[in-house]
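Section 5: illustrative case.
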C-alpha cells in the first residue's frame, strides 16, 4: 500500500515504504516447498498428516478478484492479538510467529493493523487484557487517519467492530483483545463516504468485519484490489454492517490446515484465531 507521508509530529508507518502498485506478497508453503501454494480448498477438503483438519478459510471470486475468506465463530474459535514474545521485539512476520507456536490449535493468523517503523501499533492495541497502546484520535494523513477509522475488539465469545468515536463514547471496560486501524470500510451498513467504487489504488489488502450473528469475517485478497471492491464484498456478499480495513501490501495469512504461510514485507500486530476443543460426545 502506498501511504501518504505523515506529518512530522506523527509516527512514520512502516507500511509507508514505497512499493510498486499492486505488488503482492510472496505466497509460500509451510513445508518449505518452492512456488505458490494450491488455492485454498473448501473446509471439507483439507487435511494435515493423517488427521483431518477443517480449514476455516475458503477461496472465492468476487467481481473477478480472487479472495480468501476466513470465518471465526464464537462456538468454535477464540481470538487473540499477538505482537511479539513477552518483553521482546515484535515478530514482524508470520514465519517468525509460526516458529514460536504450534500449528495444532491455530485455525489461522493474519496481520492486524498499522504500525510504526519498529513494528509497534500506531493505534489502540490490547493483548491478553493488557493495553499496549492507547486509542489514537489524532488527525493526520494516510489510510489510518481516513476517518472514521475503527477498532476490532472483544472478550470471550463477544467480538465487535466499532468506529473509533463509537468505541471512545460507549466502551467502558477494557477488552481482552483489540486493535485499531483505518479506514472503516463499512459503517452501520453503509460504505465509507470517501471510498470510490473502484479507485486507482489497488493492492493486496485484508480486513475484518463482524456480522449480526457475532461471527468475525477475515478477508485477504489474493490479487490487487481497491478499497471500494473489498468494502462492497463485506456489505453485499457477507452482509456485514461494520468492517475495518487492516492493511495493504504487507497483508499476509497463515492457514496451517492448507499449508499456506505468506511472506513479504515486515508486519506489526497479529490476530490469531485458535480452535476450541470440540466435545464429540
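Designed sequence:
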Amino acid at each position: 500500500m502506498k501511504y501518504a507521508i505523515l506529518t512530522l509530529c506523527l509516527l512514520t508507518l512502516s507500511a509507508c515504504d514505497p512499493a510498486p502498485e499492486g505488488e503482492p506478497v510472496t505466497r509460500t508453503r509451510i513445508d518449505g516447498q518452492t512456488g505458490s501454494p494450491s488455492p485454498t480448498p473448501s473446509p471439507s477438503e483439507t487435511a494435515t498428516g493423517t488427521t483431518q483438519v477443517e480449514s476455516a478459510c475458503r477461496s472465492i471470486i468476487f467481481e473477478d478478484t480472487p479472495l480468501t475468506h476466513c470465518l471465526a465463530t464464537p462456538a468454535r474459535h477464540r481470538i487473540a492479538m499477538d505482537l511479539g514474545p513477552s518483553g521482546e521485539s515484535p515478530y514482524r512476520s508470520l514465519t517468525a510467529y509460526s516458529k514460536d507456536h504450534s500449528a495444532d490449535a491455530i485455525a489461522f493468523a493474519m496481520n492486524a493493523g498499522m504500525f510504526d517503523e519498529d513494528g509497534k501499533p500506531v493505534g489502540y492495541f490490547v493483548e491478553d487484557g493488557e493495553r499496549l497502546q492507547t486509542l489514537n484520535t489524532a488527525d493526520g494523513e494516510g489510510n489510518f487517519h481516513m476517518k472514521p477509522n475503527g477498532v476490532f475488539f472483544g472478550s470471550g465469545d463477544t467480538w465487535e467492530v466499532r468506529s473509533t468515536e463509537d468505541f471512545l463514547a460507549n466502551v467502558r471496560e477494557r477488552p481482552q483483545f483489540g486493535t485499531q486501524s483505518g479506514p472503516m470500510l463499512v459503517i452501520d451498513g453503509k460504505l465509507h463516504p470517501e471510498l470510490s467504487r473502484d479507485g486507482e489504488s489497488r493492492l493486496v489488502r485484508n480486513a475484518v468485519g463482524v456480522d449480526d450473528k457475532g461471527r468475525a469475517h477475515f478477508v485477504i485478497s489474493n490479487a490487487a484490489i481497491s478499497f471500494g471492491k473489498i468494502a462492497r464484498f463485506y456489505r453485499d456478499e457477507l452482509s456485514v454492517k461494520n468492517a475495518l480495513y487492516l492493511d495493504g501490501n504487507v497483508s499476509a495469512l497463515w492457514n496451517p490446515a492448507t499449508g499456506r504461510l505468506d511472506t513479504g514485507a515486515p508486519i506489526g500486530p497479529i490476530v490469531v484465531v485458535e480452535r476450541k476443543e470440540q466435545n464429540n460426545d
